[in-house]
Amino acid sequence: MIPHKTIPGRYADEAGKREFVREVFTAGAPHYDRIGRIGFFGTGHFHRKRAVEKAGLKPGMNALDVACGTGAVTRAIVEVLAGKGQVCGVDPTESMLAEARKTLAVPFHVGYAEALPFPNRNFDFLSMGYALRHVADLDRTFAEYHRVLRPEGRLLILEISRPRTRTALVLSRLYFRDLLPTLSWLITGSREARQMMTYYWETIDACVPPPAILAAIGNAGFRDVRHTTELGIFSAYTARRA
Ligand SMILES: C[S@@+](CC[C@H](N)C(=O)[O-])C[C@H]1O[C@@H](n2cnc3c(N)ncnc32)[C@H](O)[C@@H]1O
Questions:
Q1: Confidence band (pLDDT; 50, 70, 90) for 41?
Q2: Is 143's pLDDT higher than 90?
Q3: How many Å lie between the centroid of ligand 1 and the Cα of residue 131?
Q4: Per-residue three-class SS string for the chain
Q5: What pTM does this model have?
Q6: pLDDT one-digit tens code per residue, 21-31
Q7: Is 42 a residue whose pLDDT tops 80?
Q8: Is the CB of 156 under 6 A from ligand 1?
Q9: What average pLDDT does range 174-193 have in this prediction?
Q10: What is the best residue among 26, 43, 73, 130 to mutate for testing ligand 1's pocket, by most ligand atoms within 8 Å of CB?
Q11: 104-135 pLDDT per residue, tens
């Protein structure tokens, strides 16, 4: 199952999506953290740290942060592990990883969620922050997560979901579609940063709804599959490897 239909005007077909997404994040990498801080009012780190704790991350675990980007979720994991346990990150975009390496001394690898460069049953905890929309195929991605997690291993996926109520949808469009891309351009002076944030909303708007994501996680062999939302848009999917 694809996470969203082809976005008109961005790439011609599914085959072109991977290269387009890599270009978007290559150009946006130097600006990503700043936009995140200002655009989300400084709440991002608190939100991610609380989410990994609630999903069952504990000191002593071996964790993998998929689509780690500049290391926003990785940093939260490092703090929760507090020197006991291990974490590494994986992401296909070199320039996002280059930003992560500036502040985090953990291993970072180049790779895609759909084909993780790790052995079977290797991790106790696997996270993915705000990147599920970018994978080529949800079933293949969740099968990979199931493969690299140990039995009883915990899964956490953070995502922004299209709001269900009319009012929340109008407000979200006003902020994420009409305001945030321009704000990103103003604070960075970068057209590429604006494009990154325009594409951000386009994919949220087009993404399959939470029940479809929950079903795909369950079909991959996970149990205790749960979905919670905050403010109607910030989704957390959690599950345990059977
Ligand atoms: C919006 S950033 C999220 C970064 C970080 N996880 C966070 O919480 O802010 C999306 C990241 O997904 C990565 N990405 C895109 N396609 C991917 C794929 N197929 N597999 C894994 N990561 C992917 C991009 O390179 C980018 O770094």
A1: confident
A2: yes
A3: 5
A4: CCCECCCCCCCCCHHHHHHHHHHHHHHHHHHHHHHHHHHCCCCHHHHHHHHHHHCCCCCCCEEEEECCCCCHHHHHHHHHHCCCCEEEEEECCHHHHHHHHHHCCCCEEECECCECCCCCCCEEEEEEECCHHHCCCHHHHHHHHHHHEEEEEEEEEEEECCCCCHHHHHHHHHHHHHHHHHHHHHHHCCHHHHHHHHHHHHHHHHECCHHHHHHHHHHCCEEEEEEEEECCCEEEEEEEEC
A5: 0.95
A6: 999 999 999 99
A7: no
A8: no
A9: 94
A10: 130
A11: 999 999 999 999 999 999 999 999 999 999 99
Residue 5 confidence (pLDDT): 84
Q: Which domains does the chain have, with CATH numbers?
A: 43-162+216-241 (3.40.50.150)
29 Cβ closer than 6 Å to some ligand 1 atom: no
- Measured distance CA(66)–CA(235) in Å, rounded: 17
- Ligand 1 atom nearest 93 alpha carbon: 25
Centre of ligand 1 from the C-alpha of residue 91, in Å: 6
- The ligand 1 atom at the shortest distance from the C-alpha of residue 92 is 25
| pLDDT computed for residue 40 by the predictor | 80
